[in-house]
Amino acid sequence: MEGNNPAGTAAGGEGAASGTGAAPDVATGAESAVVVATGATQPAGGAPAGEGAGGEGTGGEGTTATPPAADALMFGDTVLPDFVPPNETPREKELRLELEGLKRAAGTGQQRPQQLTAEPQKPDRLAFNTDEEYESAFEQFVENRGRWREQVTKQQQRVESQQRQFVEAVQHYSDGEGRKTAIANLKDFAAVEQYVDDNLDPNVMAAILFGGKDGTFSNPHNMLYAIGRQPELLKQLNDSANPILAGAKLLEISQKSNFAPKAPVNPGNSVPSVSGGGVSDLRAQLETAEKEAAESGDRTKVIDLRAQINAAETKK
């Protein structure tokens, strides 16, 4: 978004803003396109833990790592560690004490003070029959005024914090290498990006930007491109009334939006110049490459040398 970054969407705004513009007419033959897989799921479980050989010191013979149990839950290729209850953080302690205070208040019939919805007004002396009534109302006014000012201050700090975080997320999205890569490799990326910015629910857009900033999504540019190229997917996100389900859908989109593998380079019929003994030298190199491939498993050099030998022999 060269001049129209996603900053046009308000962070944490209420309601969905679904645009009515038509999707840009983009071709699907980009040299390097984002592929949105359908139905491809990664099977649960992974490779068992590798074997570990112990030392031959005075402690005795080496040990072998125990493979995971048949019912062990894997996270990718890693066995989940044993659960150890974490130490209580200061914030967790604060919340726990607050919850305990609420429980005590509920047990004694006390109620938590209600949030004030309007600025308290100073009571009018003429509206009270006695000084005692007026003084009681004035004391309540002073207390409510203090609470009101505290509410306003906290609300302003919260809004300023959200705005600052949103600006940082937009800058991270716009200034990073990911957007440059997307522009260079994805056909009509800027047009698709602008279309999504204009038509996607601002809350969903903010979720993508924040997710890209904190690392939840490693490919926010690919996500926007995939959403823009699939109007039905954009409509599905806009129509989602459950933010939890919308978040799960974004994770799915992130996992599926990947660059297609590049096609192998075709060497053509060009025959590189061969110095020295010509084909005989190539055969000697091929013999060495075969031995290296047997150890490494990489036969790229073997295939290349065989192609050179065939081409040189054909040209004779």
Question: How does this model look, in words?
Answer:
The protein is mainly alpha-helical. Among the domains are: about 100-160, no CATH class; about 175-260, no CATH class; about 280-315, no CATH class. The chain is built from ten helices and four strands, in the order βββααααααααβαα. The chain has helices spanning about 90-105, 130-175, 175-185, 190-200, 200-215, 220-230, 230-240, 245-255, 280-295, 300-315; strands at about 35, 75, 80, 255-260. The strands form two sheets. The protein has a two-stranded antiparallel ribbon with strand order 1-4. A two-stranded antiparallel ribbon has the order 2-3. Helix 2 (about 130-175) crosses helix 5, helix 4 packs across helix 6 (about 220-230) and helix 9 (about 280-295) packs antiparallel against helix 10. The longest helix is centred in the middle third of the chain and has 45 residues, at about 130-175. The protein starts with about 35 loop residues before the first strand and ends with a helix.
